[in-house]
Amino acid sequence: MITYKGYSVTEVFQAAAQDEIWTEEERVALAEIAEGLRNNYYNQLLIGSGKWDGTEERLHSPRAFSENFGTGRIYCVPGGKFRFYCHESVAGHWNIGIVGIYNC
Q1: Whole-angstrom distance, CA of residue 93 vs CA of residue 86
Q2: What's the predicted TM-score (pTM) here?
């Protein structure tokens, strides 16, 4: 697990995507999760605003998927190869580790 400082899970996934401790393939997956989380937030705002017309075409993709796991969450992008565990250890400090190579 590697610790990153940040205000949001999206921010720390983006920071991890730029960290050379990960392989190139893992960095791409981390960046896709960060983008997917931003798209999730955009889609929630769009739907909540009442401006969504109900079509999938209006929603931003890719979207990130997450599920509770212990005291953190597992994140991935549907169709992606990697899954990552993320846990906020103390305010503003997040730990990210690779869960393994699984299809999301």
Answers
A1: 10
A2: 0.89
pLDDT score, position 84: 96
Burial call 56-90: b when 16+ CB within 10 Å, e when fewer = eeeeeeebbbbeeeeebbbbbbeebebbbbbbbee
3-state secondary structure the chain: CEEEECCCHHHHHHHHHCCCCCCHHHHHHHHHHHHHHHHHHHHHHHHHHCCCCCCHHHCCCCCCEEEEECCEEEEECCCCCEEEEEEEEECCEEEEEEEEECCC
